[in-house]
Amino acid sequence: MNFDFHLHSTFSDGSSTMEDIFIKGKELNLNAISITDHDTTLGLNLEKQLSKKYDIPCIPAAEFTAVEKGVKLHVLGYHIDKDSKELYNYSSNLLNYFDERSKKQIKILRANGIRSEEHTSELQSP
């Protein structure tokens, strides 16, 4: 049997969409997958839908960041409750934090003359 229980999608730091992951999983004849995006459960409903669409069972999971005595760790959690309000709020708040931090970083880069021609229209301030 073929499984992959540690995948990342574009919901965190992966380069493939969830659908792309399921398409590739079908091509590879995977019997089950688990997408363990970093610090977010926001893609779990889509994962469940795609699991049905592509007939590949999935285990709802996430990879959470923890800090213990100043050491950063990643903890994989499997069979998590995709409907947990606490996890949804955690994921949403963290996403908002990173969005705001990214906007500040973009402003700093622009103030220093650094621009990305490829993404200029997407990043322009209103």
Task: Provide a descriptive summary of the structure in words.
The protein is of the alpha+beta class and 126 residues long. The protein has helices spanning 18-27, 44-54, 85-111, 120-123; strands at 3-7, 32-35, 61-68, 71-78. It has a two-stranded parallel sheet with strand order 1-2. Strand 3 (61-68) and strand 4 (71-78) form a beta hairpin. The model has no long low-confidence stretch (mean pLDDT 90).
What's the SSE blueprint?
Elements: E1 3-7, H1 18-27, E2 32-35, H2 44-54, E3 61-68, E4 71-78, H3 85-111, H4 120-123
Parallel strand pairs: 1-2
Antiparallel strand pairs: 3-4
Quick structural overview:
This protein is an alpha+beta fold. The chain has helices spanning 18-27, 44-54, 85-111, 120-123, and strands at 3-7, 32-35, 61-68, 71-78.
Overall mean confidence score, pLDDT: 90
Q: What profile does the largest beta sheet have?
A: 2 strands, parallel
Number of helices: 4
Shape descriptor reads: globular
Order of helices and strands: EHEHEEHH
Stretches where pLDDT is under 50 for at least 5 consecutive residues are none
Radius of gyration: 17 Å
Q: Taking strands numbered 1, 2, ... along the chain, how are they ordered across the largest sheet? A: 1-2
Q: Strand tally, please?
A: 4
The amount of helix comes to 40-55%
How much of the sequence lies in strands comes to 15-25%
What structural class do the secondary elements suggest? Answer: alpha+beta
First-last Cα distance: 51 Å
Task: Pick out its properties.
4 helices, single chain, two-stranded parallel sheet, two-stranded antiparallel ribbon, alpha+beta, 126 residues
